[in-house]
Amino acid sequence: MTTEQHITFTDWLHDSSRGHGALPANLIQTLMVTAEACRRIGAAIGQGALAGVLGAAGSENVQGEDQKKLDVIANDILLQLHSDGSHLAGMASEEMDDPFPVPHPGSEGAYLLLFDPLDGSSNIDINAPVGTIFSVLPAPNGCDARDASVFLQPGSAQVAAGYAIYGPSTQFILTLGHGVHAFTLDRYSGELLLTQENLTLPAQTQEFAINMSNQRFWEAPVQSYVADLLAGKTGPRAKDFNMRWVAAMVADVHRLLCRGGVFLYPLDSKMASKGGKLRLMYEANPMAWLVEQAGGEASTGHQRIMDIQPSGLHQRVPVMLGASEEIAELTRLHSA
Ligand code: AHG
Ligand code: MN
Ligand code: MN
Ligand code: MN
After folding, report:
1. pLDDT computed for residue 106 by the predictor
2. Residues at the annotated binding site for substrate?
3. How far away, in angstroms, is 287 Cα from ligand 4 center?
4. What is the pLDDT of residues 101-153, one digit of tens each?
5. Is position 76 within any domain?
6. Is the ipTM of this complex over 0.95?
7. Which residues does the annotation say bind Mg(2+) 2 (predicted)?
8. Under 8 Å between Cβ of 67 and 60
9. Ligand 1 atom at shortest distance from the alpha carbon of 120
């Protein structure tokens, strides 16, 4: 129906006339396979109870979280589809303790792929939006991808990052460092079609996202920031703020890219020993890059997220991202 009017994801990736030169074939392959994996994950999610994919898997991941069946299914789809090609040296995931090297005799994979196969998995059982987040890093020459340390590159080294959101429609959001672009799955043809280029995140907002139930556990700067937002027009910020929380980072960040806002998962006293809730390598870094590419900012409160030198594959960090005016205010409160 709509296929004639929109460029396909495949054509978009091959179109070097976009002004930034031709993409390396291995990167095109990485992105096409990731998009196809997301299409299949979305199809499994869409079948829901009919396919018997809902509920707990009966296992725990390295984070100590109970895995859902779909966490495991989504992880397996990504591993399986990427295992065949020679484009990757290895993969790492929220659902695997250790990296997964991709064997290919006689050649070397050019990239490392990190992913959160199913983000917001507590939404699965209530038929609410979930997603897949991914980050592509260069593979160091001759690296052994069994070694987690080859993955420990800062977010500023990413060559591609994005997510799929499985909502009323399935969308694939991508940055290669030249803006943020949105593709929508045509469920009739199975094609991903370009529906929006250069998503932008305004510097100002009147909407914030945070899990308010953790309020008593936050540190003082976040306590005072949110108190100011809640004070509304007569408070120090002199405007009213609305609040939203989908409980899937993908959906909350997607809202920011569609209509602005600020998203926080700050450090709290329950998570202090872990460093935060969200994971640097496959949640915070890819989302930080997307937000920056859309004109926003991403910080821990003390430091730009993409400047962090990672110390572990599953490292957690405080996350504050979105409208630059809000991140500036949060940074000011953290340094006060
Ligand atoms: P995941 O499902 O991949 O483990 O990630 C869940 C994360 C993130 O998506 C979301 O922002 C946050 O956890 C929700 O946390 P609360 O349970 O505190 O709402
Ligand atoms: Mn999880
Ligand atoms: Mn997640
Ligand atoms: Mn997950």
Report:
1. 64
2. 119-122, 211, 277
3. 14
4. 998 766 778 999 999 999 999 999 899 999 999 999 999 998 999 999 999 99
5. yes
6. yes
7. 116, 119, 283
8. yes
9. 2
Model confidence pLDDT, tens digit, residues 298-310: 999 999 999 999 9
Q: Is the CB of 129 under 6 A from ligand 1?
A: no
- pTM for the model: 0.97
Question: What's the CATH number where 232 sits?
Answer: 3.40.190.80
Tell me: the pLDDT tens digits for 147-202? 999 999 999 999 999 999 999 999 999 999 999 999 999 999 999 999 999 999 99
Number of structural domains the chain divides into? 2
Ligand 1, closest atom to CA 277?
A: 13
Ligand 2 midpoint to CA 226 (Å)? 26
Q: How far apart are CA 16 and CA 20, in angstroms?
A: 7
Tokens of 32: 């096409």
Which atom number of ligand 1 is nearest to the Cα of residue 63? 4
| Centroid of ligand 3 to alpha carbon of 116 (angstroms) | 6
Minimal-distance CA residue to ligand 1 atom 14: 247
Q: Which residues contact 27 (CB under 8 A, 6 or more apart)?
A: 87, 110, 111, 136, 159, 160
Q: Is the CB of 131 under 6 A from ligand 1?
A: no
Each residue's pLDDT tens digit, 56-88:
999 999 989 899 999 999 999 999 999 987 899
Q: Are residues 180 and 280 in the same domain?
A: no
- For residues 156 and 221, state if they share a domain: no
**C-alpha 61 to ligand 3 mean position (Å):** 12
User: Domain range spanning residue 291?
Assistant: 207-335
The runs of H, that is alpha helices, within the chain are: 9-14, 25-47, 69-83, 220-231, 249-259, 285-293, 324-335
